[in-house]
Amino acid sequence: xxxxxxxxxxxxxxxxxxxxxxxxxxxxxxxxxxxxxxxxxxxxxxxxxxxxxxxxxxxxxxxxxxxxxxxxxxxxxxxxxxxxxxxxxxxxxxxxxxxxxxxxxxxxxxxxxxxxxxxxxxxxxxxxxxxxxxxxxxxxxxxxxxx
Length: 147
Prior knowledge:
By secondary structure, the chain is mostly helical. It is built from five helices and no strands. Helix 2 (about 20-50) crosses helix 3.
């Protein structure tokens, strides 16, 4: 891709009013070129591993999925083995996020139980002190009436 092509075509599609300095456009061109070359080389390695001299879409898609965690929709990656796709990609971000939330909620519930136990212990201790004080007052009152 040339700098002129990116400036006129790709970046204009994203934001037509965006005017980037030439240095930024050059950096974007370098990054995209490096990314595309890396994907092509990785896909070629996978094709060679299969014993083929032809690079297929599935080779590129598998390389992108395994190395970048990006699923490219619209192409059947492994045919009838979707379980392998999940194993290759690892947990989806939503599953990871859900597990993190579960751990946070469990931690919060544990802290709440501990705080409740502390409050119950304090209330029980206060009740015991309060009952003991009332019993002493009753004894003195009753002893005072007997005299």
